[in-house]
Specification:
FIST_C; FIST_domain_N; 21% helix; 380 residues; 8-stranded antiparallel sheet; FIST C-terminal domain-containing protein
Length: 380
């Protein structure tokens, strides 16, 4: 397995890390994560196609791109990979062709060959697709022990349009799956948030998928404003500091749900994932050091699974973490790099939602405000 990392801007590669001396014409897979204004420009795809003529090319708009130990904006972080024995297959759907994200997720997995399938890496539109329904659909048809990870494309902090492309110019509404096949592939994954919970456990008493109306039979927005205090005047932006912890299936495990928008007329909040009626929630608040420690712990989870550092680590973190950590954002990437060591190439992006299991190789979940890592290596 050979990897190369490249940063693209203004029609050229502005920096390259190619320790393995990967020959560009031998690359099988190229993934590019970058600023929406660059990703959607036909020149970007045409340039990459010229550089990597025989590769499968997947492009995704971001809210910040990860290049080695750095977090950049206004560029495209490009990763090129060639494998010794691992093979690939891809599938793509358009969300408008389906009645729901659930049906789109089912169709996406069903379009991939099953024999030898080890990993499905998902890159999805982040504005039009209900990520919670998408993962439910994929889980309903995926084979046991097949790992599903990935994330939802970003649009900086604008939350307007996101773009995804497979061997073509990126468009809005697309969902791409990359299937990895072969028994020589070493996989690992980790996903952690690092938030503090506070206050009483409460019950969602009225919701419609990802739109929240009531908690404990009280208007959720008004309750939120009470807890936010001085931060209430800064909604919805300040809500990134106070996501919700959502319990799964009445168990003790939780995933994070963050607010995308607030409607003061209907007194509702729209979250980046579903909040089913009857589910238990608690308020959360940011702890800067714990957020960074969580990135390190996610990397440690990868090491525990694979017993070795990955050759390539795909990092998908949340735009909310980027906005909260501000000029400390590179610390969470550096924490991952320190755990893996200098031989691991890091790439990825800041997203509108992260996809990863809670337990090793179990069903995937949609996360918000987490650092999610997928590790890839190949036995010689």
């Amino acid at each position: 397995m050979k990897t190369a990392l490249l940063s693209y801007k203004d029609g050229v590669f502005t920096s390259i890390r190619n320790d393995d001396q990967l020959v560009f014409s031998e690359a099988q897979l190229v993934m590019g994560f970058g600023a929406p204004e660059l990703i959607r420009t036909p020149d970007t795809y045409e340039f990459l196609k010229l550089q990597f003529p025989f590769a499968t090319i997947v492009l995704c708009s971001s809210s910040g791109e990860i290049y080695d130990r750095e977090v950049r904006d206004g560029t495209v972080s490009v990763c090129a990979v060639s494998f010794n024995t691992t093979t690939l297959a891809t599938a793509q759907v358009t969300i408008e062709d389906f009645s729901s994200g659930f049906e789109a997720g089912k169709a996406l997995v069903e379009r991939l060959p099953i024999t030898g399938l080890r990993l499905i890496f998902i890159i999805s539109d982040g504005g039009k697709v209900n990520g919670s329904e998408l993962v439910k659909g994929m889980n309903s048809v995926k084979p046991d022990q097949v790992l599903i990870t990935g994330g939802l494309a970003g649009d900086a902090d604008r939350f307007e349009k996101t773009f995804v492309g497979l061997n073509n110019y990126p468009e809005s509404g697309k969902i791409v799956a990359i299937g990895f096949y072969g028994d020589k592939l070493i996989l690992s994954h980790g996903s952690l948030g690092g938030w503090d919970v506070f206050g009483l456990e409460r019950t969602v008493t009225r919701s419609d998928q990802n739109i929240l109306y009531e908690i404990d039979h009280k208007n959720a927005l008004e309750l939120y404003k009470t807890y936010l205090g001085d931060y209430a005047a800064e909604l919805p932006g300040s809500a990134l500091l106070f996501p919700l912890a959502l319990k799964l299936n009445n168990g003790e495990e939780t995933i994070v749900r963050t607010i995308l928008s607030v409607d003061n007329n209907t007194k509702t909040m729209t979250f980046a994932g579903d909040l089913p009626e009857g589910s238990k929630v608690r308020f959360m608040k940011a702890n800067f050091d714990k957020l960074i420690d969580a990135a390190s712990d996610a990397a440690n989870s990868c090491l525990s699974l694979a017993r070795t550092s990955p050759k390539l680590a795909l990092l998908i973190s949340c735009v909310g973490r980027k906005l909260i950590l501000g000029n400390r954002i590179e610390e969470e990437v550096e924490a991952v790099a320190d755990m893996f060591g200098s031989e691991t190439l890091l790439t990825g992006f800041y997203s509108y939602g992260e996809i990863s299991p809670l337990h090793p190789f179990s069903n995937c979940e949609l996360h918000n405000q987490t650092m999610t890592i997928t590790g890839l290596n190949e036995i010689d």
